[in-house]
Amino acid sequence: MESIILQYGWVLIVLVVLEGLLAADNAVVMAVMVKHLPQEQQKKALFYGLFGALIFRFAALFVITILVNYWQIQALGAAYLLFMSAKNIYDLHYKKDSTEESNEKVKKKGSGFWMTVLKVEAADIAFAIDSMLAAVAIAVTLPEVGHFDVGGINGGQFIVMLLGGFIGVIMMRFAAQWFVKILNDYPSLETAAFLIVGWVGVKLVVLTLSHEKVGILPVDFPHSTAWELTFWIVLLAIALGGYLVGVRHKNQDK
Hints:
Blueprint: H1 2-34, H2 39-62, H3 64-67, H4 72-93, H5 100-108, H6 112-139, E1 149-150, E2 153-154, H7 155-185, H8 190-209, H9 225-253
Antiparallel strand pairs: 1-2
């Protein structure tokens, strides 16, 4: 029994670390999505959006074997993130009529808050499928505990996956809130943030192309060492470059 407890504890730690790594890039996307809202609404939008996403993750665990067949969900997520990245970078640097007055109008629109919540939920749904698949692959290696199944998965394994996902969503929420603060302190970081959003969109493109029903890339390519290293090196390079530019601009403004 002690051996089983240790195995379950170790897998839970692995799942939390996995969710934490995934939360890092996902949180940047969430932060960019809520940044246009008034400051008092940003935390609420993250809370409501990620609460809805948590409910989705819980429900999706029951039907994960069906859900994974729909590669279109990740494809739509990729298309949206790439569009958002390109549009906002264009607006920041080339759209001359993007004034503070027009930004205030956007903030005051009644539908802005709930539409933002829906966007946060939709983005997390696109991210969630891959993380849940990884969680299933890890959890099913555990010895079965109990005499009940949930959605075709052993009850003990299901509980570990649920706990890992729940902790991951909480981590994402606080990480996103921290990124919002960084973007408020260093406005010139917005370009880097939107570049990261686009890069995360590329990540979803890779996941889509490697889906077994698409087959353009090998199924195991998104989780290969080469791609993981490439993704994180590029992401960190964008973040570091944006931070250095942001600090320089802030020093010049003093």
